[in-house]
Task: structure prediction
Amino acid sequence: MTAAVADAVAAVDYDHFVTELDGSTLPQSSSIASIQRMLEDLDVRPGHRVLEIGTGSGYTAGLLANLVGPSGLVRSVEVFADLVPRAQARLEAAGVTTVTVSNRDGYAGDPVGAPYDRVVAWATPHVIPSSWIDQIARDAVIVAPAKVAELATAHAIVAITVTDGRPRIVAVRSGGYIEMHPEPVTVFGLPLRYVAASHAPDDAEPWWISSLAPREVPGALGLVLDWLRSAPDVSDTPLEAAEELDDFRAWLYATVPAELATAGLSDRFTSIGAANEDGAAFLTDSELVTSDDADAARTLTGWIEEWREAGRPGWSDIPGALVPGVEGWEVRLTLQLAHGG
Ligand SMILES: C[S@@+](CC[C@H](N)C(=O)[O-])C[C@H]1O[C@@H](n2cnc3c(N)ncnc32)[C@H](O)[C@@H]1O
Result:
């Protein structure tokens, strides 16, 4: 950890911000370890102007205020109106005077404080909004979670710099945050975008499948999901102990984003694999979960073999690229850049 981030973490009381009056933890809080990693990439200096997307508890706004010091400023935007006065009150009680919190949709940034030296987001946009690029100063840095494929939970953390108006990814890391949403949401668990079929019982974690594979039979993935819920075939993961599922994920996002599928298998949490109209095969941290179809399992096994042949590249080997889109910049992982520059 850099000395500046370590000093900020030591100076700002996490519990003061995240603890509710009844002693519970605010659901919109982030883990300190993940916050620290992102703040290191952000490299905030005294006097900087910082835009924060997703105030939540106000804890990270407190850290940013500490990092910019008395000569800097922090503008923090939060879509959930109730959290704004809560965060403001906690910041005031902690003696912080350089943060302004407002109830805004972070997709539009906050032009009032522009140009910003740093932009940091704690919720995942489906594209990097053009407004963030438009509102930054020369040599600015943006650190944000981002979608790396049009699949639910296909997230990474990216650091972006802008040269002559053109943004460029300088670091891609594993990680992710809740999806950004233009309206407040209070139900967590079921992804907001890219879900092809789902089942969300009241008393358990939801089931869902996300896949871009073309489907000729309407509702086919719903039937596949029903099969996974009722009669899954569960065996040990085919990955060896030294093989990281997280690195394999990065490889899949880079090489087969259009054929890939992700799934939420209730309490098995998020998994990745292959799905077609007749079945699916998904890897979790320790298991292979399949439905009654050998094709999907064969596809997944083939991807594992290709990954091994390529030397098991992972997050630190696979660069990211920004692709201009209609609403902003799409983030993609690409092996071509690694070879072709
Ligand atoms: C992981 S929490 C932030 C935690 C915060 N960094 C902290 O220290 O407590 C993500 C926050 O982003 C907010 N959010 C989601 N979509 C948003 C949007 N479009 N604009 C602004 N805030 C948004 C959520 O309401 C939530 O409070």
Observations:
- Confidence is low (pLDDT under 50) at residues 337-341.
